[in-house]
Amino acid sequence: MRNVGLIGLGAMGLGMAQSLRRAGHRVHVHDVRMDVTRAFAGDGGVACGSPADVASKCEVVISVVVNAAQTEQVLFGTGGAATVMQRGSVFVMCSTVDPNWSVALEERLAGMGLLYLDAPISGGAAKAASGQMTMMTAGRPEAYEKLGDLLETMAAKVYRLGDRAGNGSKVKIINQLLAGVHIAAAAEAMALGLREGVDPQALFDVITHSAGNSWMFENRMPHVLKADYTPLSAVDIFVKDLGLVLDTARATKFPLPLASTAHQMFMQASAGGHGREDDAAVIKIFPGIRLPG
Length: 293
Description:
It is built from 13 helices and 9 strands. The chain is an alpha/beta fold. The longest helix is centred in the middle third of the chain and has 29 residues, at 167-195.
């Protein structure tokens, strides 16, 4: 049994914490929603009042927050983890961020005597809860050694993509390029079907058994069919993530026409008031259709 810290009990972080707990580790958790923190501890675990509280008890701290700004707060904000982490401890960063920012963070933490793993994640809440998600990791050999088998406890696939930070985040934003384009394309296809008077459930059944199917069509279009836009992954997540994709490509003048179009679609949905809805709500930008429900 090891003392492991995890900060951010959202859709993915909660499942990861549960996987660590099932494996017999003593899991110290913190979330800005203290009721969620206490609920996890009530089922077995340790509730902590701040990232610093987590870091003072654990030599491994896993951060599963939304973006780079929140990660900065976790480490260096009021009650941040970095100032109390013992030298040689490892910080595992699971957010989707600018790869250059991740490289800089590794250097910053190294200057404090801390190890760092660039480790974005993918798979969704269900796979995180069952320990079947994917981790795209990059970091120094010492960081992997310190972690032991903790990564494999949380994920079915742990890819090691380099001995320095950066490549984990690069692969993750490429994954997000595909995910965002596929969701946008799935919404466009369903919207066309609705506009043409095709029964949406029949369309879903046909497409999911035909060559045009995608994982995102099969996963997201049921949200549309049920008129359930509860945000498992919100529209604004893809405003952010596709923005990171485009920023990375722009730096080397690399054209991304499909990613650019998908980004504009999510931007339009967000501007229309749907930013905090499930990302399937991008279908709401299409005019002249009557959505289920």
